[in-house]
């Protein structure tokens, strides 16, 4: 099956994530509804920061042609910019481990967003035990490997160590 790159538009969008990919970094501020069973992602209308919202999750899902199975969809907000240059994914309602089914669906939702442009520094809100956390705290494989500083950098940071090293006498006395 061929995967098709789909451009993000400001209109209501219905995306089959099994056949289409998007770049979530192009999303400014909009609702999302995702069904992990079917792979259907509905992106609500694109809202400007100062606009008045004229809809809700249920209305936008119905406008996308989905009138059954509302509770099968994980819901929230997604966007980039402002205080979140690498993006934010906000679950509404919040998801914690007390509701195993919803927690697993939300985890699947995060995997889908990871495949569609979420970055290690994308902020995740309302998932797990912490209110806000970077995506790399959930998917540790996204973390950059730690770089061991070079000996030269270590010495530049510790000039007293360099000075004390020069004072040592390693020759044997006769």
Question: What are the defining features of this structure?
Answer:
174 residues; 28% strand; elongated; alpha+beta; 25% helix; 7-stranded mixed β-sheet; 5 helices
Structural description of this entry:
- The strands form two sheets. A seven-stranded mixed β-sheet has the order 2-5-4-6-7-8-9.
- A hairpin with a 2-residue loop joins β6 and β7.
- The chain is α+β, with helices and mostly antiparallel strands and 174 residues long.
- It has helices at 57-63, 100-115, 135-138, 151-157, 159-167; strands spanning 4-5, 13-16, 20-21, 30-35, 40-43, 74-81, 84-95, 123-127, 130-134.
- It has five helices and nine strands; from the N terminus they run βββββαββαββααα.
- Helix content is 25%, strand content 28%.
- The chain is elongated and about 90 Å long.
- It has one domain (4-146).
Which helices and strands appear, and what pairs or packs with what?
Blueprint: E1 4-5, E2 13-16, E3 20-21, E4 30-35, E5 40-43, H1 57-63, E6 74-81, E7 84-95, H2 100-115, E8 123-127, E9 130-134, H3 135-138, H4 151-157, H5 159-167
Parallel strand pairs: 1-3, 7-8
Antiparallel strand pairs: 2-5, 4-5, 4-6, 6-7, 8-9
């Amino acid at each position: 099956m061929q995967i098709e790159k789909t451009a993000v538009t400001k209109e209501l969008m219905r995306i089959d994530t099994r056949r289409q990919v998007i770049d979530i970094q192009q999303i400014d501020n909009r609702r999302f509804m995702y069904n992990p069973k079917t792979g259907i992602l509905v992106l609500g209308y694109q809202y400007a920061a100062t606009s008045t919202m004229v809809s809700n999750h249920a209305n936008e899902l119905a406008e996308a042609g989905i009138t059954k199975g509302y509770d099968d969809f994980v819901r929230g907000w997604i966007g980039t910019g402002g205080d979140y240059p690498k993006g934010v994914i906000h679950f509404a309602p919040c998801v914690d481990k007390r509701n195993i089914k919803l927690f697993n669906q939300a985890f699947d939702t995060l995997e889908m967003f990871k495949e569609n442009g979420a970055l290690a520094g994308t902020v995740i809100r309302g998932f797990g035990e912490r209110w806000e956390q970077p995506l790399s705290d959930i998917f540790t494989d996204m973390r950059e490997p730690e770089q061991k500083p070079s000996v030269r950098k270590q010495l530049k940071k510790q000039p007293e160590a360099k000075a004390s090293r020069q004072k040592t006498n390693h020759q044997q006395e006769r």
